[in-house]
Amino acid sequence: MSFLDHLEELRWLLVRSTLAIVIGACVAFTFSGYIFDNIIFAPKRSDFITYRIFCDLANKYDLDKSFCVTEIPFDIISRTMDGQFSTDIWTSITAGLILVFPYILYLVWKFISPALYEKEKRYAVSFILSTSVLFFLGVLFGYFLIMPLSINFLGNYTISNVVKNNVDLDSYLSLIKTTVISCGLVFELPIIIYFLAKLGLVTATFLRKYRRYAYVIILILAAIVTPPDVVSQMIVTIPLAILFEASIFIAARINKNKEKEALANG
Q1: Using CB atoms within 10 A of its CB, is residue 43 exposed (0-12), middle (13-18) or buried (19+)?
Q2: Burial of 16 (0-12, 13-18, 19+ CB in 10 A)
Q3: Which one of 12-26, 62-76, 156-170, 217-231 scores highest in mean pLDDT?
Q4: Can you give the residue ranges of every domain in the chain?
Q5: PANTHER family of this UniProt entry (predicted)?
Q6: In this model, does residue 255 exceed pLDDT 70?
């Protein structure tokens, strides 16, 4: 294909992706009342499932009781005339993006597949399925763990009794969107490492060399967003550590296969 043909393919990729997101956004907009009341604002309520689980663990093992949440002391306000309408639209678009993510992956695969070998093209279903599963697992991890931990910490953090928390709607939603989408992308780490290893940009040796620094970063992140007890910190740390170790395993397999191919050809 010529350069202009590639540009044409890219244009249609963007057009189809945009249309898919718009359709997903329309579906989400239809159920926006449910999405806001039962999903977006749920972590602000003291009966949210994460708080109840952590409280049960704290009572069972005699740990810190800070997660037995009775109240998260802040109100959510909208300070502009079109604030709630704009929020509804942009939240629907974000939800639409999450809903159609597997289809967008399919379009991306179709775009890059001409550059792949025939044996690599056979992995299309595995690629789309594994990438989608990892993304949705990351979204769930961000929503059920990182999100309530952050809301509870920030909602109860005070510098003085003089200051009252009235949180702007945009600020609250920005925290949620950033958290869940970022976690979804972070969970794509094994897929990213797979392609970097295939390109020869990352090796298992490199990842092992900097493993200690990666674990320090993971532990710091867990300490920031969790209450001061070991159990809750481990609940956040373990999935991230598993992701990193899985990435090392994937890189090692790719490096080993490359060495075998080099020996066979040499």
Answers
A1: buried
A2: middle
A3: 12-26
A4: 1-187, 188-266
A5: SEC-INDEPENDENT PROTEIN TRANSLOCASE PROTEIN TATC, SEC-INDEPENDENT PROTEIN TRANSLOCASE PROTEIN TATC, CHLOROPLASTIC-RELATED
A6: yes
Give me the half-sphere count of Cα atoms (radius 13 Å) on the Cβ side of residue 133: 8
* Overall residue count recorded for the chain in this entry: 266
pTM confidence score:
0.81
Average pLDDT, the chain: 85
Task: Please give the Cα distance from 59 to 68 (Å, whole number).
Answer: 9
- Pairing type for strands 166-168 and 75-77 reads parallel
Distance in angstroms (rounded) separating the CA atoms of residues 211 and 41: 37
pLDDT band, residue 12 (cuts 50/70/90) = confident
> How far apart are alpha carbons 251 and 211 in whole angstroms?
13
Q: What count of other Cβ atoms lies within 10 Å of the Cβ of residue 135?
A: 22
More confident residue, 47 or 266: 47
The helix/strand/coil state of 248 is helix
Nearest Cα to Cα of residue 225 among 50, 90, 82: 50
* Helix, strand, coil percent values for the chain (each to nearest 5): 80, 0, 20
pLDDT at 205 over 70: yes
Q: How far is CA 72 from CA 24, 149, 154, 182, 249, in A?
A: 32, 11, 9, 24, 41
